[in-house]
Amino acid sequence: MFNTVSGRRPGGAVASGPHNARNPLPGRAFIAVIVACASLMGCATSSDVVATSKPNTYTIAASATGGRMAWARAHEQAMNQARDYCERRGMQTSVTAETVSGVQMLTEHGSSMSFECHPKF
């Protein structure tokens, strides 16, 4: 009989094998690398909001890498930043134009957006 909590057999002998506390699971390092890579792939970054020459009209750019759907993360990041910018001013967002770039896996995908802040009704 084997105690999975203590890693000992009856009589105090320490079990050998991959579940021994002194011998961690062989795939643990591999799993850590996969988790680290997956977390990096989920990231998107954005520029600061930039005012244009038109009143209450702004631009923002966002980018993301990893996978075919990275453009969606870039779009979402740009939308969230635009919405937050207008909400901090007590206004609502209206997107006037958006350009999306990048379609291949493992390349940088981007979203450039122009938006306006309008009073809430």
Detail the topology: elements first, then pairings.
Blueprint: H1 28-41, E1 44-46, E2 50-51, E3 57-64, H2 70-88, E4 91-101, E5 109-119
Antiparallel strand pairs: 1-3, 2-3, 3-5, 4-5
Region (Disordered): 1-21
Protein name: DUF4156 domain-containing protein
What's the short story on this structure?
The chain has 2 helices and 5 strands, in the order H-E-E-E-H-E-E.
The poorly predicted ranges are 33-40
Record field, number of beta strands? 5
Beta-strand level of the residues, as a percent range? Answer: 25-35%
Estimate percent helicity: 25-40%
Order of helices and strands: HEEEHEE
What is the helix tally? 2
User: Roughly what is the average pLDDT, rounded to an integer?
Assistant: 77
Distance between the termini: 71 Å
Query: Could you say which overall geometry the principal axes of the C-alpha atoms support?
Result: elongated
Q: Radius of gyration over alpha carbons?
A: 25 Å
Q: Quick one: biggest sheet?
A: 5 strands, antiparallel
Structural class: alpha+beta
Domain module count: 2
Region (Disordered): 1-21
Protein name: DUF4156 domain-containing protein
